[in-house]
Structure formats: C-alpha cells, structure tokens
Amino acid sequence: MPHGEVRVKAISIMPRCCALARLSFAISSLAFPAAARAEGNLVLYCAVQEEWCRNMVNAFERQTGVKVAMTRKSSGEFYAQIQAESANPRGDIWWGGTGDPHMQAAEEGLTIEYQSPNLPRLHSWAVRQWEQAKRRAVGVYAGALGYGYNTEQMNKKGGAEPKCWADLIDPRFRDEIQVADPNSSGTAYTLLATVIQLMGEDKGFEYLKQLHRNVNQYTKSGAAPAKATSLGETLIGITFQHDMITFVVDGAPIKVVAPCEGTGYEIGSMSIIKGARNLDTSKKWYDWALSAEAQALGGQSKSYQVPSNKEAKPPPQAPDFSQIKFIDYDFAKYGSSAERKRLLTKWENEVKNLPR
Q1: Which parts of the chain have pLDDT scores under 50?
Q2: 144-265+337-352 maps to CATH 3.40.190.10
Q3: Is the CB of residue 94 less than 8 Å from the CB of residue 70?
Q4: Rounded to whole angstroms, how far apart are CA atoms 57 and 67?
Q5: 61: helix, strand or coil
Q6: Do 34-142+267-317 and 144-265+337-352 share a fold?
Q7: Distance, CA of 121 to CA of 118 (rounded, Å)
Q8: Which of 43, 62, 166, 350 has the most neighbouring CB atoms within 10 Å?
Q9: Contact call for residues 263 and 194 (beta carbons, < 8 A)
Q10: pLDDT tens, 254-301?
C-alpha cells in the first residue's frame, strides 16, 4: 500500500558512527534486488502461461499497491531453483504449476505452513492438497492430462485417429509426437506417474520406451507441444488438455483427446517460500489468489483450467470433467521426494537415453 511521506530537514554534519552505519546500509542494499528488500513489494515465481501471469500481476498491483517482480518458468524448473536458493531465498511465493513439485518442496521444508481465510471457499480436492502437503501447498486449479493432434496433418497421413494411450505407440507415429521432459516439466512428470498408475511400473516403463521411439523432441516446457501441434510442427502433442484448448479457441486445427483408458490430472498449486523476505505481501497474494475474483482471470487470460474456488465458474471452454475417465491419482505418493527422484532417475536411465 502507498505510504505517506515524512519530510525531515537534512543535517549537514553527521557523527562518524552514523556515517559508517549509513555506508554499511548502502553496501548491504546493493547485495539485494530492490524488489526483494523494499517494503510493499513481492517476488513472484509464476508457473502458468505468460499472459495469465501478467494479468494476475497487473490486477494485484492495481488492487493492493504492491509492486510485483515476476519470473515465469515451468514448475519443475522452479522447484530446482528454489532448492538451489534455499540458503539464500530470492523468491517469496510460488504460484501455479503442477502440484507434485510443490508437494516435494513441502516435504523438503522449502516452503512454509499457511492457512488462508479463503480455505473454506475451496473445493475438497484443493483442501486435500493443502492437508497432504502439511499446510504448505494449496490447490488453485485442476487440469486433465491428455493429448491433441493436428487434424490437417492427420488427414494427410490417413489412418485411424488416436483415441487411447495405446494408440500413441503405433509405429506409424514414429517421430510424430512431442512431449516435455519430466525433469523440467510437471506436465510430463504427471504423464510418467499416470502411465505407471494405469499399467503398473514394469508395463508402464515398457510403454514409455515404445513411446520414446515416436517422440521427436522432449521440450523443457509442458505447454510447448501444444503450440508445436497448432503450427503443424508435430502431429501429436501430449499436454494438459487446457493447453491444447487455448490454441483451439484461437482457431488452430487441433482435436483434443481424453484417452480411453483413463488419465491423470494436476492440482495446480501455490506455496510460500521458506525465508521469503516479503512474508506479509506473500500472504496477501496467497489470500487474493484463492478468491473467486482472482481465479476468474484464468479464463480471461485464455487459460482453461478448473478453478479451486467453488464460487468461481469454470470457463465455458474448459474440459468437461464429467466426460473424462480419471484415475485415482495418488498425489501423496507421486509427490513425495523419494518417489519422484527414483522415477525421474529411472526414466533418465531407461527411457531418455535409448536410441530412437
């Protein structure tokens, strides 16, 4: 919030001790970014689409007067950054992105407990995320995993359209599929955990090895395959369905698929970083981001996730969850630090390093 100014008359002669103190303060001030040290500011790590990040920041600044310094990356990248910065945190709040890295950060003590007064207004799945994270992460939206294909390219290729996960390992799709790397992308880690829960670990990894032969690129961002599919740079992109819908709304020739066997989902989450220098404004953002008003900005930003606030209506373009077959996704297990590290290491060794 804006603060009133207090003007004081300058004193031309300063005691030596005060001069030294002021010099020390000036030097220490150089060590920290202005956004991180100034009262009424906030350093935000944002893991959703750029337009949504910007619209959230602009609305929050207008309503509160707080100045926000925002960085946008994928959730896996932010988890790694927060872990690396743990001895000297630079961020205050981590908003958005798949819940698994938030859960892992909570388990490792990289984030702190907080109970928002808006918690009773949230859907049960969002509150359950908060409970399983021991009050260190809360659900802000949900999104269904799936894939999309470019209909123009598919028509040229011919043959049956893919409707199931099993269809994606057909040899006719060799070098035709794009998906993110689960080490950097929460979307791709959700795929990894989904396949294992659907098929069992042994059969799941065999599936991923066969899928690997058809992958033309492992991207850093989970949403990147959606853009590539819209442009015809890849035939099929595996993403959250709402990321594909963003391009469908803009007229891209994409058909979005909810796989017939069933699919996993994300609970996009929010956490306050341990050691946040702007704790009060972090809590202010946290409470505001759980309001129906703030969550309505998702649809207005062409992001079509289902909001966690029960009073916030899902965008009409959002996937109809009642028409999707979901697995009973175990967020506690697959969000745990040990399981996540084990599966990522196994995927790196047994899948990614295979020749294609």
Answers
A1: 1-39
A2: yes
A3: no
A4: 9
A5: helix
A6: yes
A7: 5
A8: 43
A9: yes
A10: 999 999 999 999 999 999 999 999 999 999 999 999 999 999 999 999
Distances (CA, A) of 317 to 63, 151, 250, 306: 28, 19, 12, 10
Cβ atoms within 10 Å of 93's Cβ, excluding its own? 26
Q: Is the pTM of this model over 0.85?
A: no
Nearest to 261 by CA among 205, 191, 325: 325
DSSP characters over 227-284: HHHHHTSSSEEEEEHHHHHHHHHTT--EEEE--TT-B-EEEEEEEEBTT-S-HHHHHH
Which residue is listed with tokens 């004193």?
11
How confident is the model at residue 356, as a pLDDT? Answer: 77
Residue-wise pLDDT tens digits, 97-127: 999 999 999 999 999 999 999 999 999 999 9
SS3 category, 186: helix
Token match 């028509």: residue?
A: 155
Both structure tokens of 59:
């609305």
Cβ atoms of residues 112 and 272 within 8 Å: yes
- Residue ranges of alpha helices (H) inside the chain are 16-30, 34-37, 50-64, 75-84, 99-107, 124-132, 151-157, 186-199, 201-214, 224-231, 241-249, 279-289, 292-295, 297-300, 331-334, 337-347
Strands 93-95 and 236-240: unpaired
Burial class of residue 296, CB neighbours in 10 A (0-12, 13-18, 19+): middle
Owner of token pair 């996704």: 329
Computed over its alpha carbons, how large is the radius of gyration of the chain? 23
CATH architecture of 34-142+267-317: 3-Layer(aba) Sandwich (3.40)
Tokens of 8: 């004081």
**Domain spans, the chain:** 34-142+267-317, 144-265+337-352
Residue carrying the six token digits 């040899």 = 171
DSSP state of 63: H
Q: 353 in helix, strand or coil?
A: coil
